[in-house]
Amino acid sequence: MFLSTQYYALIAGLREWTLDGADKGFDATETYGEIRRELSPKDRRTAALLWSLVDIYGLERTRVEWLYDRCEASRCDFLKDWARFDRNLRNIVAAHTARAKGMEVASNLLGGGDIVEALAKSSVADFSLRGELEYIDSLLGALDGKTGIVEKERAIDLIRWSKAESMAEFDSFGMPTVLSYLIKIGIIHRWEALDPEVGRQMYEKLLAAVKSEVKIAQ
Fold first, then answer.
1. Residue 15 gets which letter from DSSP?
2. CA–CA separation, 24 and 35 (whole Å)
3. Which of 18, 65, 153, 179 is surrounded by the fewest CB atoms within 10 Å?
4. What is the domain partition of the chain in residue ranges?
5. pLDDT of 216 strictly over 50
6. 98 neighbors 108 (Cβ within 8 angstroms)
């Protein structure tokens, strides 16, 4: 079985990063750059693709679709699986929103495949995806149970956060953990802009998780 490069020093060093203050936050782009410089050339390319996918807000639809397709065609299993997961997640949110507003669902979806077909054609509450996607109940519960946009976005990002953690669970010092960390600092960066307090809380949670992973691996 192929094993990814192990980045012991890099990942152990992540636990030393702290915030200067609750109102100052941190520079996610700088952090990404510092991590990327420590990676092998092949892993740098993978990290760059993932980072582009993490920061797709505001991009044109054609660019977003290209990024998802490019990532799903990657030889990196983590990147491929994350792109598939995140596209499905976004499509479910888009389908749920379109349905709630009485809009056509299909034209709001990205890509194709069985999940997209189910979202476009199903009339049942869970889009006939219960049993297909392990997070469908949590996601629909967040979309139906939260009244404010900020609360819904936070609940969706917590699903992303949990997925990123689970995908790196069995490779504490390999590329999956690096990519998982990049996803999480991307989430924190977004919340630093939307709600600094939430961003600070997520960063502290990330630091605590990294410390715990390092202790267990040691």
1. G
2. 21
3. 18
4. 25-217
5. no
6. yes
